[in-house]
Amino acid sequence: MKRLLLPLLLIFNAPAFAQSLTLSDIFDKPPVVNASIPTPEEVTGVRVGERHWYHYEIVNYLNALAEASPRMVALGEHARSYGGRPLVSYALSTPENLARLDEIKRARSAIIDPEADVDLNRQPAVLHMMYSIHGNEPSGANATPLVAYYLNAALDDALLAQLEDVVIIFNPMLNPDGLDRFAYWSNAHRGVNPSFDSNDREHVQSVPNGRTNYYWFDLNRDWLPHQHPESRGRLALFHEWKPNVQLDFHEQGSNSNFFFMPGKPERTNPLTPKINQLLTAKIGEYHAAAFDAEGVRFFTEEGYDDFFMGKGSTYPDLFGTVGILFEQPSSRGAGQSTLNGELTFPFSISNQFRASLSSLKATAELKDDLLDYQRNFYAKQKRSRGHYLASTEGDSTRLQEFVRILKGHQIEVETLANDVTAEGQVFKAGQAIAIPLDQPQATYLETLWRAQLEFEENVFYDVSTWTLPWAFNLSHTREPVRNAKTKALAPSEAGQALALAESPIGYLIDWRDANSPALLYDLLEAGANVRVAKAPFTALTTNEGAVNFGYGTLFVAPELQESIPEAALSRLSEAVSKGLGVYPAASSYTPEGIDLGSRDFDVLSLPNVVLVTGPGTSAYGTGEIWHLLDTRVDMPITMVDSHNLKRVELDRYTHVIMTTPLRAAGATAQLDAFVKNGGVLWLQGASTVAWAAGEGLTEATWRETPAQRQAAELKRARNNKASPEAQGALLPERKPFSTASDEYAFTLVRGAILQGNLDTSHPLGYGYTSSELAVFRTTNRFMNPSSNAYSSPIVYTDSPLLSGYMSEENRTLVANSAGLVVDERGQGAVVLSLDSPTFRAFWWGTQRLLVNGIFFGDLLEEPR
What we know:
Distance between the termini: 75 Å
Protein name: Peptidase
Number of helices: 25
Keywords: Signal
Radius of gyration: 29 Å
CATH architecture of the largest domain: 3-Layer(aba) Sandwich
Largest sheet: 9 strands, mixed
Strand content: 15-25%
Number of strands: 34
């Protein structure tokens, strides 16, 4: 292994660490290169590894290569991040392959079509190289200038032979917003003599760090729901090229050694073909040879898995592709002192470079096996007859988003053409969707739909379940329906565009639609008088006659001797034109239920929300809420860092939302006064609820396992100085040390779907039409229902586990426990939410709970 140490370079007013990386530092015998191909430094003025490159520098260099080299073409922009940064990709191969690139791309579709006649011998394999989906794992993206330079400039016969057999789709960074956030931090917090101490500021980025995207989401968990623009573009690129091998470059803890797939065998998704893992192992042999030649330690088949089909190295496995994960120990800056010695940024980059080249070699030499596997995956995959059916009542927006997700995976969706009764539910023609099981992407459809309760191993790197129709709270069939007649899904079936009819009484808005909250905020902001119904009724409307309305229906009415503001009418007209449920009232009299002048309509006010963020908080938890309110409810919020909260006059706000315990001193009394004066404090997560209860802000009682009770009794016995015999009787059973980590993992809940019983008459339940609600659970703490009979909007059922892993002990504890509790305090209320209602932005079925808590905060009380 060559030492990557160069003389220290001091640049006045622009300190730069002396280390950098060139081909001469990687190869014992530097390759002969084409001098007409520009080096990274010649284009950008920055050497690879000298510092962290920014998004624009990487793109500028790769564009220059595409202009200068016959082996590379720019494929253009496939997405644009929330921060406005383009995500681009390139094709790398021989000039001959690039000249017939369109033909090769067309052949990709033929390969997965069992009926198509395609000559695999004429087809190159496609290798998708993806780097740094986590922005604070930058060695991957920073390796791309040098990887691309070598692939374009090296005059090496072996390389040219490999490129004849492979087309590389080169994706230099998957998270440009996070990459730049981290690059700025690292470049701004090191000196001419950088510290290798892991405690140094350069290595400890503030929340949010560069791992996440603009809204602080982990984009590597967004393959399945593809809720963000980066993911949607990435998914489209994947299905456009249908690669044979997909590489996913990451970083891990600094004290580890390099990891590459295969992962832990027992944690492989049951739908993944065995040949997939055999090919993964074969490719791994090439990585092993490359790293052994340099004396770089590595490991496989432990720590990481291929179970969750929603991340970059596992998603491809159900599409006839082999996904490969790389994990390089992270320098998190210029360098760090580790248990293995000094780990430098250039050394990290060099390992990602080697893995890139060993992957190309493996793909070229295994081309025939990879193409055969992809062809046979689609020709021999299990297909069933019939359709899955799904519908939503009163919420076309949610159903349309569900369809968008399916289509993003190339899953075919149709419309139900005849009414069908199945599994005790009625699915109506034109309102329900039908998903055929007999289709090319039948395998991925199965993983989205299936419920799993039995597992070979009960330890998970990520979540243990992800059943999509439950995530969207759809009425759906669990088994295929054989008698469904279907027709093509047409965009026009989403709703007709209508004009807003005049009404001197006002307008009723169906609260069930997921777009209604954004409309409500706009109406309140426009100064409209908006009321919410606390009881169901049937109203007379000018366009639909008698219409049934449920809890949470909105009523926009003119104030006394006034008209509805023009801005509000304009917003209502826009909503009607988009098919939202807005109904002109024909009379205040209603045939059934409360009249429109009833005191069971409460006037709503404009919410003003504080979200506690910053040091000590969870970027994921706060990002999910920020994204929901900013992009879907279209409302501004005020984000206040935890250490600044005590300086804020909270009486200006209606809500404070916390997703982690508050560690800053001096704010507890402030929050208590805020609630008692009429504010709503939303506490999300078990640790947050437990902290608030300990601070006296609310009350919560917890269920305990026998072991927890035994530990508590032992602690009391010791505090009371009980006899040694009495203490000894309470000691736990002795167990082998080697089993400790696994036994602890078994107690965790790493993502399970629970059946909740929802009180639809409670303000937090407004807009739901069924008391059955699937909730995503990631905590192993279980809360008792409120002592007030009316104040537990969600209580889990007797046997609530729908899908995923939970130990028998946890299954016992969760039965009839509470997921959501309201604690009235003075004039305000504290909401205790153990679960994240907008988990990873795709749990659309529960996000309304948080939205209701914001708009209907004044209704949150504990009836006596």
